[in-house]
Amino acid sequence: MKLVIGSRGSALALWQANWARRKLASAYPDLSIEIEVIKTEGDRLSETPVSQIGGKEVWTKEIEHALLSGSIDLAVHSLKDLPTRLPEGLVLGAVSAREDVRDVLVSKNDRVFRDLPGGATVATGSLRRQAQLKHARPDLNFVAIRGNVDTRVKKLETENLDGIILAAAGLKRLGLGDRIADFIDPDICLPAPGQAALGIEIREGDERITELVGVLNCAETQQAVTAERAMLATLGGDCGVPIGGYAAFDAASIDVLSLSGVVATPDGRQVISERAEGQASSAEQLGVRVAKRLLKQGAGVILDRDGKDTLPRH
Length: 314
Hints:
The protein is an alpha/beta fold. It has helices at 11-27, 41-44, 50-53, 61-69, 127-136, 149-158, 168-173, 207-212, 219-235, 283-296, 299-303; strands at residues 2-7, 32-37, 74-78, 90-95, 103-107, 121-124, 141-144, 163-167, 182-184, 198-203, 243-249, 256-264, 271-279.
């Protein structure tokens, strides 16, 4: 039996696809598994800020076309890059266990975030990170950066940067954890909904693939990201607006989820945050509830700007 996994061609994307292949091969030794590399619009426009070329679809559209056409059987995505509204005929078939969910600083001389000197130049490809970190450190100079994880790390030296903000999960998966100078607490910078988890996208109604990808699923992570993505979907947000969301199980009960959400202006001057708890079995309703509270506080005014503020290029 043959199975084809669709993936982008970056080192991180291939790590993710190979993770899925190893897990599937271990569970189904008779399965012949191939990885098909697909170039997306986001890959082709690698130097243009994502907020200027479209939403999350720039990372997924071509892969989803291949999935719908039947040329691949499943797609492995960084879940934070997968839109909350999938094309008709496609569903989220599984969600992996999470890696470290935090954002991190890679810096010259391993300076931690609080010790960066005023005026230091810090690069990030995310308006979410920019907004929250500007709120915490308005004295820093934030600039945009594009490229794969390894490319961004190299730019620390080649483009005279003082630091780069990245996801801990990507660095750890690529064996670059030793480059992390500082882990940024979610109280300072909430991660993106779905961050550090992998999303397995499949065709709706494909019973064979649905059964196979069950071995890739982590039920606890699936419940957490369901809350986060429901919040994001209710807010109507995408890469172009600064939205953070993180759900975690209550230390006292595995049945209770705590969801924190934030919406901010790109300049970091206005940050609206909310937090609520709910039953893990009602994760979607929890996400909707937090989103509605954010909107009631005025998040809709920020979201209506639709990411028109962007970072200076670097």
